[in-house]
Every structure is written in C-alpha cells, then in structure tokens.
Prior knowledge:
GO terms for molecular function: N-methyltransferase activity; nucleic acid binding; S-adenosylmethionine-dependent methyltransferase activity. The structure is a single chain. Helix content is 31%, strand content 25%. It is α/β, with parallel strands linked by helices. It has a single domain (2-220), classed as Rossmann fold. Strands 1, 2, 3, 4, 5, 6, 7, 8 and 9 form a 9-stranded mixed sheet that branches. It is globular. The two termini are 26 Å apart.
Amino acid sequence: MDAMLLxxxxxxxGAVTVADLGAGAGAAGLAVAAxxxxxxxxxxxxxxxxxxxxxxxxxxxxxxxxxxxxxxxxADVTLTGRARVAAGLPDDAFDHxxxxxxxxxxxxxxxxxxxxxxxxxxxxxxxxxxxxTAGAIMIPGGQLSLIARPQSIxxxxxxxxxxxxxxxxxxxxxxxxxxxxxxxxxxIKGSKARLNLRAPLLMHDDPESHRFSPFVDxxxxxxxxxxxxxx
Length: 231
C-alpha cells in the first residue's frame, strides 16, 4: 500500500520523467508507468538482487506496454557529485522524484531476512542525503514526493530546507479517532510557498470493516492520483 500511495502523488499531463529512489523491486515506479502512459521512469536501487526482481517484472507479458519506458540504474542514493553523475544520475534531469526511504528505527524489531532488514533500516541523516540527491537530479520547479512515518516529519522539513518549498503534508489515518500511521509529503524545487497541512486521508470509512474507502481504493489500484493543492 505504501508504494501505491507514493505512486499516486505523481499527477502529470504529457511527457514526464520520474526517478524512483531506493526503488527496491520497483513497485512504486512501475505503478507510475502503468497509470501514466507518457511517463518515463528510472528505478534507482543499490541492491542488484532487488533490481533482478524489477527486471523480471518488466519481462512479464503483462508489462510489455511499460517495459520500454522504464530504466534500471544500480546506484547508491547517497552518492554525490561526479560519483552520482557517473552512476547514471545527472543533474537537473527529472521532473519528479519519488521515494519511500527505510523507516525502521534502531529499536524496532528487525526481520531475520538480511535483504529486508537493509531495505527497512533507517540511518542517521538519511532524509538529508536522499533529499539532497533528489534536489540535485531534479529540474527547477520539479516535484519531490515521499511517504514516511509521522515521526520523521521534522527531519523531512529540515532536509527540504531551502532546496524545496511549498510542502504539502497529508497525515494518513487507519480510521477516525486513531493515530496517523504515515504521512504523504510533496514539495517543489525552488518554491518559496509555505508549508500546508492538508486534510487527513482515512483508509477505512467503516470502523468495523477492513475495506478501504472508495477514494483510497482508487489510489491503491492506480485509478486516481492524489494531486497537490498548489504550486
């Protein structure tokens, strides 16, 4: 669900270039390519094992319509300067950058699976380094989109700093009266607009049911985008 909500934050008409940082097996980036038939998507992942899964997905007959618009780049998101460019992430190249960074704190119970543990483990300065890279590879006026835990909101705002403005933050709640479990954040490179805290997104309308609300179900299944309110 995190990947699909992240993908829904890309709302564009016409040709658009999208980089999915820390793409894993590519769920979010592939969802963008499937919903927007003019989007060209670059999946950026440092784990060759995860990129193999993405490559296998692209070779499925069902994905023939998107495979030519998706590029795989094996690179560490935290690379800087010439090393980043040499890895295939040039400056000012993308209209949108999306990310679902690792979110588990050191105190959280860790999975015994080494690959999953690496994908989920948060490190100090993570948002600063990832958002710095997003700012470097994005065109002026481009959009940053990410999904994270609510506890990371201060770090995200701080990392955006002067690089990004016009932050729009949407808290995601399981049901009315419960605490938020995720935040959706979008921002515009170079914008001077102020932060906007948007109305909450409720996953379930019925307190007795696990069925998603109609709008969230549309987001989860690529039938709708979660558009920004402003620039």
